[in-house]
Design a protein that fits this description.
Layout: E1 6-12, H1 19-24, E2 32-37, H2 44-51, E3 57-61, H3 67-81, E4 86-89, H4 101-109, E5 115-119, H5 124-128, H6 132-149, E6 162-165, H7 166-171, H8 183-194, E7 198-202, H9 216-241, H10 246-275, H11 281-307, H12 314-326
Helix pairs in contact: 6-9, 8-9, 10-11
Length: about 350
């Protein structure tokens, strides 16, 4: 079996001081190193072209700044065009050790995953190195991403050390994925809709003197709204468009009963205050029973969602489908019309 073609994508924006060390540390089994200069004010792309003689390196330039997501997606597209089988994305600031590449690639080669991402929360020693604000922010974002993506077993969703099988990348709507800091979370949402198998890989948190352009106050509300939007879309796609199962019924009935209970309870509470009369036991039960039942149904639907674990890698299913099409019987040849015999006079 031939070795897979591995491509490493490095988005380049204000990484001039570290990117050469990152490129030099990329292991020799990597076929292509794709550097995308995202309209970098430090001209990182030109710096790489002038200083690096490694024939594996390809430098591409974005005419406008597209953000880390936009630069990564450009790199993915170039990697697919070069015929890569596995695509890895690492940052150019030195926070992601290229020596960890085998750890990320192995689960995909062995057919155990479609997409592998880093997780810095697997050891107490690693977590202690993380600034308190980042620790809190990552914990909140991880919970929101579990809801919006459906990958309840994952943590550290904004970790940018990612690796994906090319067949799965081809199935994703790359033109619709968020271009900036929401890129990693939006990738997980798209992978969840496609039913790809995603795994976490332990890695250490590394923080140096680099200055992040991420501002928590600026992205907090957009991140929240984006996760809420993706959660709603995932529920619609997963339980009402691409499938319909017991969780679909529980969601419909639970929401209806919850809304009915809240409406009746609200009207009864308003009437009780307006008239100064205590609501009767029947009125209370008419509101409480639908409310409690609706909550139980929604909790049951959440439990179904949490336990609905993807077990088969998507790229293997794609390969199986391709083989079935390859060995499908050919259509019988069309019959050539035969001219009627000439009449002998």
């Amino acid at each position: 079996m031939p070795s897979p073609v591995v491509a490493v994508v490095i988005p380049c924006y204000r990484v001039r001081s570290a990117v050469l060390r990152v490129i030099a540390a990329v292991p020799g089994f990597v076929r292509f190193i794709i550097c995308v200069d995202d309209c970098c004010p430090e001209e990182s792309g030109a710096h790489i072209s002038a200083k690096v003689v490694d024939p594996r390196v390809r430098v591409f330039h974005n005419d406008v700044n597209l953000g880390v997501g936009g630069a990564t997606i450009r790199g993915f597209q170039e990697a697919l065009a070069l015929g890569a089988d596995i695509v890895v994305k690492i940052d150019g600031d030195g926070q992601m050790d290229p020596e960890l590449l085998p750890r990320f690639i192995s689960p995909i080669i062995n057919g155990k995953a479609d997409y592998v991402k880093g997780n810095r929360f697997t050891s107490i020693e690693s977590v202690r190195q993380m600034p308190a604000l980042r620790l809190f922010g990552n914990s909140v974002l991880s919970l929101l991403c579990k809801l919006s993506s459906g990958y309840w077993h994952l943590f550290d969703p904004n970790n940018g050390y990612i690796c994906c099988h090319a067949d799965v990348l081809k199935r994703l709507p790359l033109n619709k994925i968020a271009r900036r800091y929401f890129f990693e979370s939006d990738m997980l949402f798209r992978l969840g809709v496609a039913r790809a198998l995603v795994l976490d890989v332990p890695m250490a948190a590394v923080y140096g003197d680099e200055q992040s352009s991420l501002r928590i106050g600026r992205v907090a509300l957009p991140f929240l709204f984006s996760h809420i939007r993706n959660f709603g879309k995932r529920m619609l796609y997963r339980y009402f468009i691409l499938d319909f199962n017991i969780a679909s019924v529980e969601l419909l009935c639970g929401l209806a009963l919850l809304a009915f209970g809240c409406l009746v309870g609200g009207v009864g509470w308003y009437d009780s205050i307006r008239d100064g009369v205590t609501a009767s036991a029947g009125t209370v039960m008419l509101a409480a029973l639908p409310f409690i039942t609706g909550m139980q149904l929604l909790i049951s639907a959440i439990n179904f969602d949490v336990t609905d674990v993807i077990r088969e890698p998507l790229h293997r299913l794609i390969a199986t489908q391709d083989q079935e099409e390859l060995f499908a019987p050919a259509a019988p040849p069309a019959k050539t019309p035969v001219d009627p015999p000439a009449r002998v006079r």
